[in-house]
Every structure is written in structure tokens, then in C-alpha cells.
UniProtKB/TrEMBL annotation:
The chain crosses the membrane at residues 467-488. PROSITE patterns: CARBOXYPEPT_ZN_2, PEPTIDASE_M14. It comes from Stephania japonica. Keywords: Carboxypeptidase, Glycoprotein, Hydrolase, Membrane, Metal-binding, Protease, Signal, Transmembrane, Transmembrane helix, Zinc. One of its GO terms (molecular function) is zinc ion binding. Residues 1-22 form the signal peptide. This is Peptidase M14 domain-containing protein. Belongs to the peptidase M14 family. GO terms for biological process: peptide metabolic process; protein processing.
Length: 511
């Protein structure tokens, strides 16, 4: 039996609601920033920049004064088109709908195979980078959409030069929506053209009367369609007005302000802490311990995108407050970009470097199965992709987990893994039909993959055999391989082997 490497669908939904200046300015900023080595300490870099810090009170400026230095909606569209023209080898652009006033909601996808669904070896991103940077939900918070253009251009300029940029482009499909609310940006208001707060417009688990999907605003419906069309793993929205990484739940059952943990509280704390500690000063503030907060513990909201994505999109989403001033002067943008650059890169890369990933296959003919994958003790299930059978599960590193796969009509299987720091684990499940031959108690083999070293370091786990020596484990694997060689018909094996081109270099173990 073959072990198939998984592919990672990662979606970066960067909803940034504001924009600052045009692409040319972004290029100038990037050219200046490129003088600093990638991966250098952002704090140290930040001190080199001349940041003009303003008080948190909002200045009494006219709309024209506020907009100075920021891209208009048409400037933003032009900047995106310039980007995909200049970087056509790693990008494409598509629209997910229109705003109330008919402005297209443009998305940039960045990948070495943009627009292609893939099932490539370990953590080669398949369709989507399921990490969402969600910003630009609120019209009067424009920093995020500027940063997304800077991020896109930085990735393009550093592809095959910087390891992190190369990792993201080759392993992830990064989808960025710079503005979810272009009408609100033009009006310099929080809500959309109907003055509806889009981050209160999603169906909510605690407000059943709010669950009519057709009653949503066009921008909200576009996001909901998008999340259902793509198989995003994670997401982040970019906001302004505070400096903190916020994680689910945003609302509480009691409707009171209290810490209300979701099933994946540990994983979300890990993701939020990764962002805040990679940031110039997010983790150093006095208002939020370590620069992170549970949403309901800060202030509960209902109808937010973050909770909806986690519940209905299978997507782990953070709400990132990236500037204390909602609409800062444009001359602060270079510093804000530099303060957030490593955080944004690390958050995307974390999808490749941690968690458990794999494929679900039938032992009968090798076809992929849309299995449910759950972690023992965590009340949350992810569904493997229908087309490629791959699944991606974000988990906090440094712990042991039991991964379970279930498909109707097949015998359920489970295996235990140790998720070490900065090292993802690949677990492929080969499912036997109910009533068919019982192979072993637990057959899945997982392969640890440190994507910093191009996956050449592998470890093989067999559930229940932790502590065995390598020789003993090798003998077990050899016996299992021999048994399967006898049990499986030549025809079946040939079918499975035909899928090898999808899987890349041989690094799985057949059982
Ligand atoms: Zn906001």
C-alpha cells in the first residue's frame, strides 16, 4: 500500500479595508526596506525607521486630508493589475462579487501554480492557503489593504531569494482580498454603503434569528460563497484601532463579557501568540497579556466573520488589530508594514510548519475519500477534500494527539502522533470497507516533515509502538509490507501506482 503525501490548501484571505498610496510608492517603500535582511529582528528594524507616532485620538481632518497618500479604490485595482502583470508567474487575480455600489471585490492569489488545484507531496499547497488575513472589513480601517499590496510585492521580489518567501509561494496558495468593503472606504465609514457593519452581518451561533443567509449584505454573501467554494485552512482579517491578535469565540452563550473558549482554544492561542510575538511591539502592550485575547473576553460581538469561518468554513481565523490608530497618516505606513511583515509571513508559514496533514484513500482502488478527521478530546471535525482526499488540521505544537478518520461504509482508523515544535506531521489513512479484510488495528503511518529542510527528514510512527527501536519498527514495517503485497491484487496496486505522479518523490511507506 502506498502512502501518499498530502497537499496543503492554504487560503490567505486578506480583507484589508483601507488603502494608502499607489503601487509606485509601495515599490519605493519596499526598495528601502529591502536594505534590511529578511528575518532580522523586527524590533531592531523598527527602531531604524522614522515613525511619527500620533496619539490615539482621531484627528479632525477632512476626508480629503485623511485620504491623502492612500490608494483610492481605482488606484488599488490598478495596483493589483500591475502586480499580476509584473508577477504573472506566481499570481492571478479574480473577483468574488461586487459591493453594494458595484465595486468588484478583487482577490490576488499568490502561488507557483496559481489557479491550479494540486495534490503534491507533503504540504505542497493544493488549492488554498487556508489562513485568512482578514482586513478591510471596516471602511474606516485602511491600513490592512495597503499592507497586503506590500506583502504581495515583497513575496514576488523575494521569491527564490528568501527562504520564507520561497516556502510560502511553493507550498501555499495565498489568497488576498485587499478590500472587503470598498464602499465604506470611499465614504470613510465603518459600515458598507448601506451603513451595515459587515463584521456583524454573518449568521451567528448565538443569534438564531440572524441565520437567514439570503438576508446578508452583498459583501458578506460574497465572502460566504468564497469560503464554501474554496477549502481554506486558515484566515486572518486585518483591522485597526488596537494592537492585539484576537481569536474565537467572539461571542458568548451568556451574552456577557467573559472568556469563552472554542474547542481549538490552544491552537488559536498558538496562532495568535505567533503573530503577536513576531510583531514589533504587539506582545509588549499593557492592555492585552502577550498581545492576544479571546474575543468574548475583550468584548463580545455577534455576527462576526471569525466565528462563522471557524464553524461553517472549517477555517481557523484570527482578527488582527494591527494599528492603534484606525486611519493613520500615510507616512506611518512604511513602519506599520515593517512592524507586521514578519508576523504576516510567520503566520502563513505556520500552516506548513505545524499541524497534521494527509490524505484519505480507499484500500480497494486507491480513490480519495471525503473522510471526517477528528482529534480525540477536541470537539471539532475537518472534512477531507472531495477531489484530492487531503485534509489539514491546525494544532498547537508540543503535544501528543490521537488522529481519527471516519468514512461511512469504512472501518474507522486512528493513530497517535507527537507534534513537535516547528515540524508538521503527515498522516495518510488507507481505509478498509466495512466487512472487508481487517488489516491491522491501526495502519496509518505518519511521516514527520520539517519543511525547512525540504522534507528529507522523516520519522515513521506506528500507533501503539512508541518506544520501539528503529530496527524493531523497521521489521514491523517490512512484515506489513509483505502481507499487503500478498493481500492486494496486482490490478489494485497498479491503480495505486498510477497516482504516484501526484505524489512526487518517494518518501511514504506502503502498508
Ligand atoms: Zn475593524
Amino acid at each position: 500500500m502506498e502512502f501518499f503525501s498530502s497537499s496543503l490548501y492554504v487560503l490567505l484571505l486578506l480583507f484589508a479595508v483601507t488603502s494608502i498610496r499607489g503601487y509606485q510608492l509601495g515599490r519605493t517603500v519596499l526598495a528601502n526596506l529591502m536594505r534590511f535582511p529578511v528575518g532580522a529582528c523586527p524590533r531592531r528594524l523598527g527602531r531604524r525607521l522614522s515613525l511619527q507616532i500620533r496619539p490615539r485620538w482621531l484627528p479632525d481632518l477632512s476626508i480629503a486630508e485623511m485620504a491623502r497618500g492612500y490608494m483610492t479604490n481605482s488606484d488599488l485595482e490598478d495596483a493589483m493589475k500591475q502586480f499580476i502583470t509584473r508577477c504573472s508567474h506566481i499570481s492571478r487575480m479574480y473577483s468574488i462579487g461586487k459591493s453594494v455600489n458595484g465595486v468588484p471585490l478583487w482577490v490576488m492569489e499568490i502561488s507557483d501554480k496559481p489557479g491550479h488545484r494540486e495534490a503534491e507531496p507533503a504540504f505542497k499547497v493544493s488549492t488554498l492557503l487556508d489562513l485568512q488575513f482578514i482586513g478591510n472589513v471596516h471602511g474606516d480601517e485602511p491600513v490592512g489593504r495597503e499592507l497586503l499590496l506590500l506583502l504581495a510585492n515583497w513575496l514576488c521580489d523575494n521569491y527564490r531569494k528568501d527562504p520564507l518567501a520561497t516556502l510560502i509561494i511553493t507550498k501555499v496558495h495565498l489568497h488576498m482580498l485587499p478590500t472587503m468593503n470598498p464602499d465604506g472606504f470611499s465614504l470613510r465609514v465603518r459600515g458598507n454603503a448601506n451603513y451595515i457593519d459587515l463584521n456583524r452581518d454573518f449568521p451567528d451561533q448565538f443569534l438564531p434569528m440572524n441565520n437567514d443567509e439570503e438576508a446578508r449584505q452583498p459583501e458578506t454573501k460574497a465572502i460566504m460563497r468564497w469560503l464554501k467554494e474554496y477549502h481554506f485552512t486558515a484566515s486572518a482579517s486585518l483591522h485597526g484601532g488596537a494592537l492585539v491578535a484576537n481569536y474565537p469565540w467572539d461571542g458568548s452563550q451568556s451574552k456577557r463579557r467573559e472568556y469563552y473558549a472554542c474547542p481549538d482554544d490552544k491552537a488559536f492561542q498558538y496562532m495568535a501568540s505567533l503573530y503577536s510575538h513576531s510583531h514589533y511591539n504587539m506582545s509588549l502592550g499593557k492592555e492585552f497579556h502577550e498581545g492576544i485575547t479571546n474575543g468574548a473576553a475583550w468584548y463580545p460581538i455577534y455576527g462576526g466573520m471569525q466565528d462563522w469561518n471557524y464553524i461553517h468554513g472549517g477555517c481557523f481565523e484570527l482578527t488582527l488589530e494591527i494599528s492603534e490608530v484606525k486611519w493613520p497618516d500615510a507616512n506611518e505606513l512604511p513602519a506599520l508594514w515593517e512592524y507586521n511583515r514578519i508576523s504576516m509571513l510567520n503566520l502563513v508559514a505556520s500552516l506548513v510548519k505545524t499541524g497534521v496533514h494527509g490524505r484519505i484513500l480507499s484500500s480497494e482502488d486507491g480513490r480519495t475519500l471525503p473522510a471526517s478527521v477528528a482529534i480525540n478530546g477536541i470537539n471539532y471535525t475537518v472534512i477531507a477534500d472531495q477531489a484530492f482526499g487531503d485534509y489539514h488540521r491546525i494544532l498547537a505544537p508540543g503535544e501528543k494527539y490521537e488522529v481519527m478518520a471516519t468514512v461511512p461504509g469504512y472501518q474507522s482508523k486512528a493513530t497517535r502522533i507527537l507534534l513537535e515544535d516547528d515540524e508538521a506531521v503527515n498522516v495518510d489513512f488507507v481505509m478498509d470497507p466495512e466487512g472487508g479484510p481487517q488489516t491491522t488495528k491501526q495502519l496509518p503511518v505518519s511521516i514527520n516533515c520539517n519543511c525547512n529542510c525540504d522534507c528529507d527528514k522523516t520519522k515513521i510512527y506506528l500507533a501503539g509502538l512508541e518506544g520501539w527501536t528503529h530496527v524493531e519498527m523497521s521489521l514491523v514495517v517490512a512484515v506489513i509490507l509483505a502481507c499487503f503485497g500478498i493481500l492486494f491484487k496486482r490490478k489494485t496496486l497498479l491503480k495505486l501506482l498510477k497516482q504516484r505522479p501526484l505524489l512526487g518523490p518517494r518518501r511514504s511507506v506502503g502498508v
